[in-house]
Amino acid sequence: MTPCWDEILRRSPTLMDPTLTGVLIVLASILILSTARFIHTKKKRSWNLPPGSLGWPVIGESVEFVRLSREGRPEKFVADRVSKYKSRIFKTSLMGEAVVVLSGQAGNKFLFSNGSKLVASWWPVTIQKLFGVCLSTSNGEEAKQMKKLMSYFLSPAAIQQLYITKMDFVTQQHLHTYWHGDKTLKVFHVVKLYTFELACRFFMSVEDPNQINKLSVLFHIVLKGVISLPLNVPGTRFYYATRASALIKEELLAILKERREMMRQDGTSTANDLLSHLLLTPDDDGNFMSDLHIVNNILVLLFAGHDTSSVTITLLVKKLGELPHVYEKVLQEQREIASSKEVGQFLNWNDIQKMKYSWNVVSEVLRLYPAISGTFREALEDITYEGYDIPKGWKMETNNWG
C-alpha cells in the first residue's frame, strides 16, 4: 500500500515513536551478536589497522558523525580524529560499516588513481535504499552503460545548448517572486526552491509550480534521511525518508508514463530533456533502460544537481555580504554584461565566458567550503597503504578538508 504523503508531512520527524521501545530490545540483541562476530573476526588475522575507534557495534561513531553533519560541521569529525591520533589515516565505523578515512592529497590520489583495480565506488546503505539502482550506486558495465546514456545531459555542451536560456528565465522569475522588495530573506530556504525547480525543468521539463512544490517538500524529507542511521522503523528520519522516496518515485513514474503516451500519439517528443532521451535511446546492446531505473536515475540527479548547488549558492551570497569589495567587482562585471544585452534578451554562452572574475569567486567558495564532504570507496581486496592494512570489504573515504 502506497503511503499517504499528507501523513508523512504530518508525522515527519523529530521525536521517535513509542513503538521504538520494542525495537530497541531487538537492536540490543543485534549489538550482542555483532560484538561476538567482531571479536571472532579479529582472531582470524593480526591486522595492522590504522589508529582509531570502531565505537559501538553497528552504531559505531555514527551518532557524532550525523550530529556534526546536521550542524553543518562535518569537517570537525575528521579534524578531531586527525588531531587525536596524530595521523591523517584513521579508522572509524559509520552507518554499520568499518571505514578508513584518508585525509589529504595523497589519500585522494591513491583512491582515484586505482580506479577499479583495488577499489570500487560505494555509497552508504541509506543512499542505496533511498535511490535504488542508479548511476551513483552501480559499478562495472552497468554503470558504464548508464553514464554513456546520460553523459550529454550532464556535459558542458548541454549547458551551452539547452540550459543557459532556461536558467536565465527561471532565475529572473525566481528573483522577482522571492527576492524583490524583501529586506530580510532566508537565503538557503529560497535557494533550495530555486535549484530544485531548475533540476525539475532540466531533467523532466516539469514547470507546474504546484507539482514542483509537492516534490520539493517530499524531497527534503528524503534528504533528512540520507545522513542518518539506517533504521527503517516508525519515528526515525530514515523511516520517513523511505516513505517519501516511494511517493516521489510514484510521481516520477506518472510523469514518465504521461511522456511516453504523448510520444506515442505524436510520434516524437517536443521536450528535449533527459527523460525523453532515456525513453528513446537504447544502450550499446539495443536494450532500453527500465522505467524504474529511469526514475531512480532522475531522482539521484535531482539530489546531486540540487543539494550541492544550493549549499554553494548560499555560501556565495554569505561571502559576498561579508566582503563588499569583492561584491562590488562582481556587480561591476555583471552590469557590464547586462548593458550589452537588449531588453528581454537572455544570456548566452559568450556572456557566461565573460564572467571571469565572478567564476573565480565561485571557485574560491568551492575551495574553501566544499559542497561534497568526501567520496566513498570499497576495498576489493586486502590493501596495504602507508604501512596500514585495510581488509577486503572495508570502506574508505577521502575528504575535502585534509
From TrEMBL:
A single BP term in Gene Ontology: sterol metabolic process
Superkingdom field: Eukaryota
Sample GO molecular function, one term: heme binding
Signal peptide: none
Keywords in alphabetical order: Iron, Membrane, Metal-binding, Transmembrane, Transmembrane helix
InterPro entries on file: Cyt_P450 (IPR001128), Cyt_P450_sf (IPR036396)
Membrane-crossing segments per the record: 20-39
Pfam families linked: p450 (PF00067)
Key word Zinc present: no
PANTHER family: BETA-AMYRIN 28-OXIDASE-LIKE, CYTOCHROME P450 26
Name of the protein in its database record: Cytochrome P450
Organism: Cuscuta epithymum
